[in-house]
Write a structure and sequence with these properties.
about 250 residues; mainly alpha; 2 domains; elongated
């Protein structure tokens, strides 16, 4: 049993984990509540135990089976709600970028030259957030169903910021590097604080997949810990980048 299939084994221990994973993901993508998903998996598991028939033979393709079920779905959050949920991370990332730009010239005792490349990069970040918010379901489905292709696309997209900074070198304005560091740190701290507040105030919004038999509290706590850990990923990256800048000089 691998960690990857821990949830599948816990909710449907007698069903092939890959079949369970495909069914679970499809139901999640369709907006089915976690309690309902847990009930569906428990029903499938019960049928497999009683009949001795594999799930694929009894229910067919898991994605097709999920789509055939007439299940209630949660109301999809509107663009405004999605934008609000992603805003704290966007502020964190912006703070990380500004720190990454400002720390090296501060170490060298130089002025921070903000170029058209920097401006284009910020505009690109904003455009990507808006696109993700507007097409969140499509993006999530693509990542889940085509993880390798999604990873390759993400890797290729990382070249775009570098190209912008290299090609658009015209200086827009020069500012004291210390001011840039202060602004970057303020944005990073504000975004982190905002994310932590949202995490605390929206703790009840989580919708974990639960078995109808109960006993899922450890999984819920694990989910909360993972969510809190995610908030600190950008600040941790900022610390690493700052340390590297100080060492390299």
């Amino acid at each position: 049993m691998t960690d990857r299939y821990a949830l599948e084994h816990r909710l449907a221990p007698h069903v092939d984990e890959r079949w369970t994973e495909a069914l679970l993901l499809e139901l999640r993508l369709r907006g089915v509540p976690g309690d309902t998903i847990g009930a569906v998996l428990a029903e499938v598991d019960s049928h497999v135990v009683e009949s001795g028939e594999p799930a694929h033979d009894a229910f067919g393709d898991p994605v097709a089976y999920a789509r055939s079920l007439d299940l209630p779905v949660d109301d999809e959050p509107g663009p405004r709600a999605l934008l609000t949920s992603t805003a704290p991370t966007a502020v964190q990332v912006l703070g990380l970028l500004v720190l990454g730009w400002a720390v090296p010239p501060l170490v060298r005792g130089e002025v921070l030259d903000l170029t058209w490349g920097h401006a284009a990069l910020v505009a690109l970040l904003g455009a990507e957030i808006l696109l993700l918010v507007r097409h969140a379901d499509t993006v999530l489905a693509a990542v889940v169903r085509r993880p390798v292709l999604s990873w390759l696309a993400l890797t290729a997209s990382m070249a775009v910021p570098v190209a912008l900074l290299l090609l658009l070198r015209g200086v827009v304005v020069g500012v004291p590097a210390a001011a840039g560091v202060a602004v970057g740190a303020a944005l990073l701290l504000a975004g982190t604080a905002w994310a932590l507040v949202r995490l605390r105030t929206h703790a009840d919004d989580a919708d974990p997949v639960r078995s109808p038999l109960g006993g899922d509290e450890p999984s819920t706590r694990r989910t909360a810990v993972l969510a809190a850990s995610g908030v600190w990923l950008v600040p941790a990256a900022a610390v690493v980048i700052t340390a590297l800048a100080l060492v390299i000089g």
